[in-house]
Write a structure and sequence with these properties.
Distance between the termini: 17 Å
Number of helices: 2
Number of strands: 4
Strand order of the largest sheet: 1-4
Oligomer: single chain
Structural class: alpha+beta
Helix content: 10-25%
Radius of gyration: 12 Å
Strand content: 25-35%
CATH architecture: 2-Layer Sandwich
Shape: globular
Number of domains: 1
Largest sheet: 2 strands, antiparallel
CATH topology: Alpha-Beta Plaits
């Protein structure tokens, strides 16, 4: 699962380019700073590789892996 802090995202697109599953896109909405922030469009397809979080210069992405009991 990908969690993006929409208010801290400056819309650089590095996470979108880094995602191997191509499940990150720019939102049509803008944040308070006026940037189109990144959103995850399919958390079910996320493989929790965390490449998006690693390339984010603003450290506004967290990746969680669901543990099935």
């Amino acid at each position: 699962m990908v969690k993006i802090d929409q208010e801290r995202c400056k819309g650089c697109g590095l996470c979108i380019n880094a995602c191997p599953k191509k499940i990150l896109k720019f939102s049509p909405a803008v944040n308070k700073q006026g940037y189109h922030f990144a959103v995850c469009i399919d958390n079910e397809s996320c493989i929790s590789c965390a490449l998006c979080a690693e390339v984010c210069p603003d450290v506004c992405i967290e990746v969680y892996k669901e543990v099935k009991a």
